[in-house]
Amino acid sequence: MQPLLIGDRLDELRAALTTTHTAQWRRLYEQCEWYRGQSPPTEHPTASITYFGPAAMNLALAYRLTGQPGYLAEARRWISIAVSFPHWGKAKLPDHDLDAGWLLHGLSLAYSWLRDDLPGDEADALRAKLLLQGERMYDFAVQTEGTWWSSSYWQNHNWICYTGLAAAGYVLDQPQWSDRARDNLGTVLDLMPADGSDSEGVVYWRYGVPWLAIHLDLLQHAEGIDWWERGGFLRHTFEWRLHQCAPGFEENVDHGDCHDRRSGHSVALYHKLAAAYRDGRARWLADHVAERHYWREAYASGVRPGVMPEAGYELLWYDPQVPVVDPADTVPTTAHFPDLGQVTARTGWHDGAAFVSFKSAPGGGHTAWETADRFRRDKGWETLNAGHHHPDAGSFVFGVHGAFLAVDDGYCNRKRAAHHNLVLVDGQGWAGEDRYHVYKDLPYERQARLRDVLADGGLVHATAESGAMFDPALGVRRVDRTLVFTPSGRLVILDDLAAEQPREWTFLLHSDWPAEFVDGDVVLRSGPAQAQVRRFAPDDATVSQGTTEIEANPTASTPSLRIVRTLHTVRVRVAPTPRSQILTTIEPTSALAPTPATAETADCAAGTGIRFGGGETVLLAPTTRRIEGEGVRADAAAVILVPATDDHPARVGVVGATHVELAGRVLLDGAEPVTRVLPWPA
Fold first, then answer.
1. Which of 194, 196, 347, 466 could form a disulfide with 232 if both were Cys (CB 3.0 to 4.6 A apart)?
2. What is the predicted pLDDT for the residue at 92?
3. Looking at the UniProt record for this protein, which Gene Ontology cellular component terms does it annotate, in alphabetical order (predicted)?
């Protein structure tokens, strides 16, 4: 069997090292130099040993490309230590989880590439070790079918472990391993969200999704099967990832378990998606990160092994023929990902833009929640492990000028709604929270969702429904949050709240730095960014500030590791009442040259309205669907008036509208509700 992945490409790759692949070769060279200076532990540490896999792969690839004996010697050193460990993995599921998956993959490729160059006894020892570890992994997958990663189709452990098993199966001619892995991959591709979203969040996207690409690459080379178009997830996932970039592209929106806001980039995966789908935007982001953010990603990221050990795949996957396309030239500034119930918006693709991300969906997203319920009913399987998905339906993150102002909690082991920018009921968050997997064993009907979505023309409107997530004993009838992002970057947030009896309602707003109270408003600051938070209803709420401590251990392989993060939390408490509306605006500005907030109440006979300086006006009626005010008469959930600017004509956003009049002129009249942006009447 020819060396896997590189057998028919060696001459092409060698020729490219001095022409088109010079930057990629430089990073592989630097990574191999780093390996040369390390002293890997000769006894299995408690911590993860995943990095042994890419070390063996990268050094073996460098040797096959250059023939330099030093790379072979280094590969032998790292491989011999890995082979000497009686088990792969120590603190959690030895031989049956991530450590074993990473090493099976990396050492299988190294064996495929080096077997004829290794001394006979070392080649035999490596083969025997791979057979042992592959058998352990395969047996575990078979024995645990219907539980944990063996059938957790939406989870990175599934993707990594099966890809390692596939690599070993191909290299060692164990078709039962690679066949099982292939069948699992097909199921994963069929069941992943077609909109490209990932409920595990950006950090686990960059950690897990490359393994789907690796497995597809192995499948195509070993079996001639091309599944790159299967299911739709991989074709669309780059667009989802792009919209998770905070302005400037260095940091990311941190919904879900995120070690930090920098652990989000995989240059190698961007290149593979660019090559597979001829996506010049992915090529642009790969180059942008490599040129501007690579070393920050390598050393400030909390995800290991990280971006540098992907150097081998970065070289193998780079396609210089893909044209570079700047997202600013082609990508809208708003997006909607229905499976995850997420909308994102920004005022532009420039570094100082204002941006928001707002989400609400069942655990794991709609597809996972629905499909997992079917597996549970039909087979008795538990396939949904949404441990990285937080109790965050209705929450949002917000920032401007390259800084975050309203923030999420990042990685958390005991997840709580109180860690997010949400509303509590009698001080309580969701039923079944305060644990790692807050969606486990919840009744099927315990779902949050996003409705009335408009994401177009620089506008975002959406309403999150999360009332079903609270303890039934609270008698919650409605916890609906409507969020509007205007083209100038302002936010309007309307919380519509109801219960069977009086309840205390608490609005939470978290930030990295303590807020300030100025003339009745809350001022958020972070570096060059600032925002003024203004509350319009109710009048009798009390406002206070405190801290929220988030404790996490982001890796089970190091049980002693503890990370503590402190959020600064503004709390708006509404005295017990069966119904309430909390109306809030957030206006971003520069902390270096701040401009005053302009929000004021619009005069409405029906519905709720906010008018901003410059003419932006937001009129809302998410429950009654009747709006009268500011020259508008409408049967609609929302009407948003956007004045003309130098770049855009005036326009009107309507949500769930059957009839809209503006200044006495009928813009819309029909039986079916309409949600879209309309031109301003001439």
1. 194
2. 83
3. membrane
Query: What one-character-per-residue DSSP string does 382-418 give?
Result: -----TTS-S-TT-EEEEETTEEEE----S-SSB-GG
Q: Which of 487, 455, 258 is nearest to 343 (CA)?
A: 455
Which residues on neighbouring strands pair with residue 676, listed in sequence order? 654
Contact 610, 598 (CB under 8 A): no
Question: Mapped to the 3 state alphabet, what secondary structure does 70-120 carry?
Answer: HHHHHHHHHHHHHHHCCCCCCCCCCCCCHHHHHHHHHHHHHHHHHCCCCCH
Task: Transcribe 205-251 into DSSP letters.
Answer: HHHHHHHHHHHHHHHHHHH----TTSSSHHHHHHHHHHHTBPTTSSS
The 3-state DSSP class for residue 18 equals coil
Q: How confident is the model at residue 1 (pLDDT cuts 50, 70, 90)?
A: low
Q: Per DSSP, what are the bridge partners of residue 144?
A: none
516-518/521-526 β-pairing: antiparallel
* Residue that has been written with the tokens 């064993």 in this structure: 441
Task: Indicate the pTM of the whole model.
Answer: 0.97
> How far apart are alpha carbons 233 and 208 in whole angstroms?
13
Strands 542-552 and 403-406, sheet pairing? unpaired
C-alpha to C-alpha distances, 248 to 32, 138, 209, 243, nearest whole angstrom: 30, 43, 23, 12
Burial class (CB in 10 A: 0-12, 13-18, 19+), 443: exposed
Residue 557 pLDDT grade (very low, low, confident, very high; cuts 50, 70, 90): low
DSSP code of 291?
I
**CA 270, 207, 462 angle in degrees (round to 5)?**
80
Phi, psi (degrees; rounded to nearest 5) at 387: -65, -20
* Closest of 205, 213, 219, 223 to residue 276, by C-alpha: 213
**CB-based contacts of 139: which residues, under 8 Å, 6+ apart?**
none
CB neighbour list of residue 160: distance below 8 Å, 6 or more residues apart: 98, 101, 102, 105, 208, 211
632-635 and 608-611 as β-strands: parallel, antiparallel, unpaired? unpaired
Residue 2: band (very low, low, confident or very high) from pLDDT cuts 50, 70, 90: confident
- CA-to-CA distance for 604 and 610, rounded, in angstroms? 9
Sign of CA dihedral 531, 536, 537, 540: positive
Q: How far apart are CA 384 and CA 200, in angstroms?
A: 12
Rg of the chain over Cα atoms, rounded to whole angstroms, equals 27
Alpha-carbon distance of 461 to 160, in angstroms, equals 37
Residue 675 has pLDDT above 70, yes or no: yes
Instruction: State how far the Cα of 474 lies from the Cα of 570, in Å rounded to an integer.
Output: 24
Q: Roughly what angle, to the nearest 10 degrees, separates helices 98-114 and 69-84?
A: 140
Domains of the chain: 9-329 (1.50.10.100), 334-591 (2.70.98.70), 598-681 (no CATH)
Tokens standing for residue 375: 């597996």
Beta bridge mates, 455: 460
CA distance 587 to 531: 5
